Amino acid sequence: MILHTRRLLLREFTAEDWPAIFAYQNDPRYLRFYERDSVTERQSQALTYHFILWQGEQPRSKVQLAITLAATGEVIGNVGVRRETADEPVADMGFELSPEHWGQGYASEAARAMVDWGFGEWGLERIHAHCVSENAASARVLERAGLRQEARLRDHQFFKDRFWDLTLYGILRAEWEASRGTNGLIR
Ligand SMILES: CC(C)(COP(=O)(O)OP(=O)(O)OC[C@H]1O[C@@H](n2cnc3c(N)ncnc32)[C@H](O)[C@@H]1OP(=O)(O)O)[C@@H](O)C(=O)NCCC(=O)NCCS
After folding, report:
1. Average pLDDT of the chain?
2. Domain-embedded: residue 186
3. Contact (Cβ atoms closer than 8 angstroms) between residue 81 and residue 125
4. Is the N end or the C end of the chain the one with fewer CB atoms within 10 Å?
Protein backbone atom coordinates (compact mmCIF):
# COMPACT_ATOMS: atom_id res chain seq x y z
CA MET A 1 0.00 0.00 0.00
CA ILE A 2 1.29 3.45 -0.98
CA LEU A 3 -0.18 6.90 -0.40
CA HIS A 4 1.08 9.97 -2.22
CA THR A 5 0.67 13.46 -0.80
CA ARG A 6 2.04 16.74 -2.07
CA ARG A 7 5.49 16.27 -0.54
CA LEU A 8 5.41 12.79 0.97
CA LEU A 9 5.23 9.17 0.01
CA LEU A 10 3.69 6.93 2.67
CA ARG A 11 4.71 3.32 2.14
CA GLU A 12 4.93 -0.03 3.90
CA PHE A 13 7.87 -0.60 6.23
CA THR A 14 10.69 -2.96 5.31
CA ALA A 15 13.27 -4.62 7.56
CA GLU A 16 15.89 -2.06 6.46
CA ASP A 17 13.93 0.88 7.87
CA TRP A 18 14.53 0.46 11.60
CA PRO A 19 17.81 2.48 11.78
CA ALA A 20 15.95 5.55 10.49
CA ILE A 21 13.37 5.12 13.27
CA PHE A 22 16.05 4.53 15.91
CA ALA A 23 17.92 7.62 14.75
CA TYR A 24 15.15 9.92 16.05
CA GLN A 25 13.51 7.87 18.81
CA ASN A 26 16.37 8.66 21.18
CA ASP A 27 16.12 12.39 20.68
CA PRO A 28 15.04 14.09 23.96
CA ARG A 29 12.64 16.29 21.97
CA TYR A 30 10.89 13.18 20.70
CA LEU A 31 10.86 11.50 24.14
CA ARG A 32 9.40 14.47 26.02
CA PHE A 33 5.83 13.15 26.22
CA TYR A 34 6.66 9.45 26.47
CA GLU A 35 7.23 7.26 29.50
CA ARG A 36 10.66 6.19 28.32
CA ASP A 37 13.83 8.20 28.85
CA SER A 38 15.65 6.38 26.08
CA VAL A 39 15.06 3.81 23.37
CA THR A 40 17.34 0.90 22.48
CA GLU A 41 18.13 -0.36 19.01
CA ARG A 42 16.22 -3.51 19.86
CA GLN A 43 13.07 -1.53 20.75
CA SER A 44 13.14 0.38 17.45
CA GLN A 45 13.73 -2.91 15.63
CA ALA A 46 10.78 -4.51 17.46
CA LEU A 47 8.49 -1.61 16.59
CA THR A 48 9.41 -1.79 12.91
CA TYR A 49 8.99 -5.57 13.00
CA HIS A 50 5.47 -5.13 14.41
CA PHE A 51 4.53 -2.81 11.55
CA ILE A 52 5.85 -5.39 9.07
CA LEU A 53 3.96 -8.24 10.80
CA TRP A 54 0.71 -6.27 10.45
CA GLN A 55 1.20 -6.30 6.64
CA GLY A 56 0.74 -10.10 6.58
CA GLU A 57 -2.69 -10.12 8.21
CA GLN A 58 -5.62 -10.89 5.83
CA PRO A 59 -7.79 -8.90 5.98
CA ARG A 60 -5.68 -6.26 7.67
CA SER A 61 -6.81 -4.64 10.90
CA LYS A 62 -3.83 -2.30 11.30
CA VAL A 63 -1.76 -0.17 8.96
CA GLN A 64 1.30 1.83 10.01
CA LEU A 65 3.22 3.36 7.13
CA ALA A 66 6.67 4.86 6.85
CA ILE A 67 6.54 8.60 6.17
CA THR A 68 9.16 9.33 3.52
CA LEU A 69 10.13 12.50 1.71
CA ALA A 70 8.97 12.08 -1.88
CA ALA A 71 11.98 14.01 -3.16
CA THR A 72 14.68 11.91 -1.48
CA GLY A 73 13.08 8.74 -0.11
CA GLU A 74 14.34 9.54 3.40
CA VAL A 75 12.28 7.87 6.16
CA ILE A 76 11.26 10.64 8.57
CA GLY A 77 8.51 9.04 10.67
CA ASN A 78 5.41 6.90 10.64
CA VAL A 79 1.64 7.20 10.63
CA GLY A 80 -1.18 4.70 10.85
CA VAL A 81 -4.72 3.65 11.70
CA ARG A 82 -5.35 0.61 13.86
CA ARG A 83 -8.50 -1.41 14.54
CA GLU A 84 -8.97 -4.12 17.16
CA THR A 85 -10.23 -6.49 14.44
CA ALA A 86 -10.70 -6.12 10.70
CA ASP A 87 -14.49 -5.83 10.98
CA GLU A 88 -14.36 -2.97 13.52
CA PRO A 89 -15.78 0.33 12.22
CA VAL A 90 -13.61 2.28 14.67
CA ALA A 91 -9.85 2.89 14.51
CA ASP A 92 -7.33 4.83 16.49
CA MET A 93 -4.54 6.72 14.81
CA GLY A 94 -0.95 7.53 15.68
CA PHE A 95 1.99 9.33 14.15
CA GLU A 96 5.49 10.47 14.91
CA LEU A 97 8.14 12.41 13.07
CA SER A 98 11.86 12.95 13.37
CA PRO A 99 12.46 16.25 15.23
CA GLU A 100 14.81 17.24 12.40
CA HIS A 101 11.70 17.65 10.25
CA TRP A 102 9.21 19.18 12.70
CA GLY A 103 7.37 22.38 11.97
CA GLN A 104 7.03 21.98 8.22
CA GLY A 105 3.53 20.56 8.12
CA TYR A 106 4.67 17.04 7.25
CA ALA A 107 2.81 15.36 10.14
CA SER A 108 -0.41 17.19 9.27
CA GLU A 109 -0.03 16.19 5.62
CA ALA A 110 0.52 12.54 6.55
CA ALA A 111 -2.27 12.45 9.15
CA ARG A 112 -4.81 13.92 6.73
CA ALA A 113 -3.90 11.33 4.10
CA MET A 114 -4.30 8.54 6.65
CA VAL A 115 -7.69 9.82 7.81
CA ASP A 116 -8.89 10.05 4.18
CA TRP A 117 -7.66 6.53 3.54
CA GLY A 118 -9.28 5.12 6.70
CA PHE A 119 -12.70 6.52 5.87
CA GLY A 120 -12.34 5.97 2.12
CA GLU A 121 -10.82 2.50 1.93
CA TRP A 122 -11.85 0.89 5.20
CA GLY A 123 -15.22 2.63 5.36
CA LEU A 124 -14.62 3.57 8.98
CA GLU A 125 -17.31 5.23 11.06
CA ARG A 126 -14.95 6.86 13.55
CA ILE A 127 -11.24 7.61 14.01
CA HIS A 128 -9.88 8.69 17.36
CA ALA A 129 -6.61 9.36 19.14
CA HIS A 130 -5.36 10.11 22.62
CA CYS A 131 -2.64 12.65 23.11
CA VAL A 132 -0.90 14.08 26.13
CA SER A 133 -2.78 17.33 26.63
CA GLU A 134 0.43 19.36 26.85
CA ASN A 135 1.64 17.94 23.53
CA ALA A 136 0.46 20.98 21.59
CA ALA A 137 2.01 19.95 18.29
CA SER A 138 0.27 16.58 18.35
CA ALA A 139 -3.05 18.17 19.31
CA ARG A 140 -2.70 20.61 16.44
CA VAL A 141 -1.92 17.84 13.94
CA LEU A 142 -5.06 15.99 15.05
CA GLU A 143 -7.13 19.14 14.66
CA ARG A 144 -5.68 19.81 11.24
CA ALA A 145 -6.66 16.26 10.26
CA GLY A 146 -10.24 17.12 11.23
CA LEU A 147 -10.43 15.52 14.68
CA ARG A 148 -12.00 17.49 17.50
CA GLN A 149 -11.61 17.39 21.25
CA GLU A 150 -14.06 15.00 22.92
CA ALA A 151 -12.80 14.58 26.46
CA ARG A 152 -10.01 15.40 28.85
CA LEU A 153 -8.83 12.51 31.00
CA ARG A 154 -7.30 14.16 34.02
CA ASP A 155 -4.14 12.70 35.59
CA HIS A 156 -4.57 9.68 33.35
CA GLN A 157 -0.90 8.70 33.10
CA PHE A 158 2.02 8.82 35.51
CA PHE A 159 5.54 9.02 34.15
CA LYS A 160 8.62 11.21 34.50
CA ASP A 161 7.71 11.83 38.16
CA ARG A 162 4.33 13.41 37.54
CA PHE A 163 0.76 12.91 36.33
CA TRP A 164 -0.29 13.90 32.82
CA ASP A 165 -3.75 14.68 31.41
CA LEU A 166 -4.70 13.02 28.13
CA THR A 167 -7.06 14.53 25.56
CA LEU A 168 -9.28 12.29 23.47
CA TYR A 169 -9.78 13.52 19.90
CA GLY A 170 -12.24 12.04 17.40
CA ILE A 171 -13.84 12.47 14.00
CA LEU A 172 -16.98 10.76 12.71
CA ARG A 173 -17.59 9.68 9.14
CA ALA A 174 -20.31 12.31 8.60
CA GLU A 175 -17.90 15.06 9.70
CA TRP A 176 -15.23 13.76 7.34
CA GLU A 177 -17.72 13.67 4.46
CA ALA A 178 -18.91 17.20 5.22
CA SER A 179 -15.33 18.51 5.28
CA ARG A 180 -14.51 17.09 1.86
CA GLY A 181 -16.94 19.23 -0.07
CA THR A 182 -15.59 22.51 1.28
CA ASN A 183 -13.04 24.92 -0.12
CA GLY A 184 -10.06 22.60 0.20
CA LEU A 185 -8.58 24.55 3.11
CA ILE A 186 -9.67 22.04 5.71
CA ARG A 187 -8.39 18.94 3.95
C1 LIG B 1 3.42 15.62 16.91
C2 LIG B 1 4.44 15.73 15.79
C3 LIG B 1 4.29 14.52 14.86
C4 LIG B 1 4.17 17.04 15.00
O5 LIG B 1 5.05 17.10 13.90
P6 LIG B 1 5.21 18.42 13.01
O7 LIG B 1 5.81 18.01 11.71
O8 LIG B 1 5.93 19.47 13.75
O9 LIG B 1 3.72 18.85 12.78
P10 LIG B 1 3.21 19.87 11.67
O11 LIG B 1 4.32 20.73 11.19
O12 LIG B 1 2.41 19.11 10.65
O13 LIG B 1 2.13 20.74 12.46
C14 LIG B 1 2.30 21.06 13.74
C15 LIG B 1 1.25 22.08 14.13
O16 LIG B 1 1.45 22.25 15.51
C17 LIG B 1 1.99 23.52 15.74
N18 LIG B 1 3.06 23.34 16.71
C19 LIG B 1 4.23 22.73 16.55
N20 LIG B 1 4.93 22.75 17.69
C21 LIG B 1 4.16 23.40 18.59
C22 LIG B 1 4.31 23.74 19.95
N23 LIG B 1 5.40 23.40 20.64
N24 LIG B 1 3.31 24.42 20.56
C25 LIG B 1 2.20 24.75 19.88
N26 LIG B 1 1.99 24.43 18.60
C27 LIG B 1 2.97 23.77 17.97
C28 LIG B 1 2.49 24.02 14.42
O29 LIG B 1 2.50 25.43 14.37
C30 LIG B 1 1.48 23.42 13.49
O31 LIG B 1 0.25 24.12 13.52
P32 LIG B 1 -0.17 25.15 12.33
O33 LIG B 1 -0.18 24.33 11.08
O34 LIG B 1 -1.51 25.64 12.72
O35 LIG B 1 0.89 26.20 12.29
C36 LIG B 1 5.88 15.75 16.33
O37 LIG B 1 5.97 16.81 17.25
C38 LIG B 1 6.30 14.46 16.99
O39 LIG B 1 6.71 13.50 16.31
N40 LIG B 1 6.27 14.40 18.34
C41 LIG B 1 6.69 13.21 19.06
C42 LIG B 1 5.76 12.05 18.85
C43 LIG B 1 4.33 12.39 19.21
O44 LIG B 1 4.07 13.16 20.11
N45 LIG B 1 3.40 11.79 18.46
C46 LIG B 1 1.98 11.98 18.67
C47 LIG B 1 1.46 11.04 19.69
S48 LIG B 1 -0.31 11.30 19.94
Report:
1. 96
2. no
3. no
4. N
CA of 105 to the centre of ligand 1 (A): 8
Q: Which pLDDT value is given to residue 182? A: 54
Specify the pLDDT at position 181. Answer: 66
Does residue 74 form part of some domain? yes
Does 153 map to a domain? yes
Closest protein CA for atom 9 of ligand 1: 107
**Which residue minimizes the CA distance to atom 10 of ligand 1?**
105
Q: List pLDDT tens digits, range 50-80.
A: 999 999 999 999 999 999 999 999 999 999 9
Q: State the distance from the centre of ligand 1 to the C-alpha of 134, rounded, in angstroms.
A: 11
Residue nearest to atom 37 of ligand 1 (CA): 137
Taking CB atoms and a 6 Å cutoff, what residues make up the pocket around ligand 1?
30, 33, 94-97, 102-108, 129, 131, 135-138, 140-141, 144
Rounded distance, CA 53 to CA 120, Å? 23
Q: What is the pLDDT of residue 180?
A: 86
Is 60 exceeded by the pLDDT of residue 183? no
Q: In this structure, which residue's CA is closest to atom 24 in ligand 1?
A: 136
Q: What is the pTM of this model?
A: 0.95
How far is it, in rounded angstroms, from Cα 120 to Cα 71?
26
The domain containing residue 142 runs over which residues?
2-180
* CATH assignment at residue 22: 3.40.630.30
Measured distance CA(45)–CA(34) in Å, rounded: 18
